[in-house]
């Protein structure tokens, strides 16, 4: 007998860097239902991926998909990760992420629960697992943040953001035993490096080393009317890093104060063109 609801994994652009995804539920029963709870189990994460209703349940009409936001728990990393990835991407349905949906329908007594196999057509779970494990290994070497200050040039055409790197203490290990390399820094949909002021490359960070501050001169990457109004990821600065045996992109988010200043700068700089 077919299950009354299907579940798909997705992620909106404004959830990037927030350790959150979406569970896309579709009612295929042909009758209205009310969803009381939904969760997902994946071998790539240590806990359940939960959607928590803010009050009451969610009305799910027949054939109308609805996206439920869900926080990601801690990822499975280290020696367990290879086995978890192999399990998560295997062909057997027993190895795929399994959802649990509690629901009720008019004319049926009580609350029922079904466990459909979830589909992840865009590899959202694996991508987030890899990004979170990379971030955890990088955090063991150094704290990397964007300073809240933005220094705008007198002509308002460029500005400087500061990437602040604070290596962790060695903890008894010798200097150099925990290290990371920032191979390059990428631009975003909002900001880019000026041709005359390229951003640094191949920066080696070592546990126990002194605090470092990288001054990155920026310019607007685009000036179309919707650049700021529709921004989702323009203030997530991507660092292409290698740490341990991992390589990937580490995204450093601007805090609220810096984000607002970047928006103001891009708007002003674009007005000068």
Order of helices and strands: EEEEEEHEEHEEEEEEEEEH
Helical fraction = 10-25%
Mean pLDDT: 90
Main sheet, how many strands, which sense, barrel? Answer: 5 strands, antiparallel
As a percent range, the share of strand residues is: 35-45%
Runs with pLDDT <50, length 5+? none
Radius of gyration: 23 Å
CATH topology (level 3) name of the largest domain: Immunoglobulin-like
CATH architecture of the largest domain: Sandwich
Number of strands: 17
Structural description of this entry:
The structure is a single chain. The chain has 273 residues and is an alpha+beta fold. It folds into two domains: 5-122, Sandwich (Immunoglobulin-like); 137-271, Sandwich (Immunoglobulin-like), CATH 2.60.40. 16% of the residues lie in helices and 36% in strands. It is built from three helices and 17 strands. It is globular and about 70 Å long. The protein starts with a strand and ends with a helix. The mean pLDDT is 90.
Which helices and strands, and how do they pair?
Elements: E1 5-10, E2 20-27, E3 33-41, E4 49-51, E5 58-60, E6 66-71, H1 79-88, E7 98-104, E8 112-114, H2 124-141, E9 142-146, E10 151-152, E11 159-167, E12 179-185, E13 191-192, E14 203-206, E15 212-220, E16 236-243, E17 246-253, H3 256-271
Antiparallel strand pairs: 1-2, 2-6, 3-4, 3-5, 3-7, 7-8, 9-11, 10-11, 11-15, 12-14, 12-16, 13-15, 16-17
Task: For this entry, give a set of tags.
single chain; Immunoglobulin-like; globular; 17 strands; alpha+beta; 16% helix; five-stranded antiparallel β-sheet
In short:
The protein contains 3 helices and 17 strands. It has 273 residues and is of the alpha+beta class.
């Amino acid at each position: 007998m077919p299950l009354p609801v299907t579940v798909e994994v997705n992620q909106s652009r404004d959830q990037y860097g927030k350790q959150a995804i979406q569970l896309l539920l579709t009612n295929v029963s042909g009758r209205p239902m009310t969803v009381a709870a939904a969760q997902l189990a994946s071998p790539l994460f240590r806990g359940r991926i939960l959607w928590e209703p803010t009050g009451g349940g969610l009305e799910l009409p027949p054939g109308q998909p609805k996206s439920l936001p869900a926080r990601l728990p801690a990822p499975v990393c280290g020696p367990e990760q290879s086995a978890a990835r192999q399990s998560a991407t295997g062909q057997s349905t027993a190895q795929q992420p399994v959802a649990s949906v509690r629901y009720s329908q008019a004319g049926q007594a009580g609350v029922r629960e079904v466990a459909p196999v979830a589909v992840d057509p865009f590899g959202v779970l694996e991508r987030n697992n890899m990004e979170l494990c990379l971030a955890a290994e990088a955090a063991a070497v150094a704290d990397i943040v964007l300073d809240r200050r933005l220094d705008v040039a007198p002509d308002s055409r460029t500005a400087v953001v500061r990437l602040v790197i604070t290596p962790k203490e060695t903890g008894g290990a010798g200097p150099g035993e925990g290290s990371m390399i920032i191979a390059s820094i990428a631009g975003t949909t909002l900001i880019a490096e000026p041709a005359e002021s390229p951003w640094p490359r191949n920066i080696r960070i070592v546990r126990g080393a002194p605090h470092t501050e990288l001054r990155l001169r920026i310019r607007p990457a685009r000036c179309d009317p919707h650049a700021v109004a529709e921004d989702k990821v323009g203030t997530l600065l991507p660092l292409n890093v290698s740490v341990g045996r991992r390589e990937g992109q580490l995204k450093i988010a601007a805090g609220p104060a810096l984000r607002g200043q970047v928006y103001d700068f891009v708007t002003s700089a674009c007005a000068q063109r």
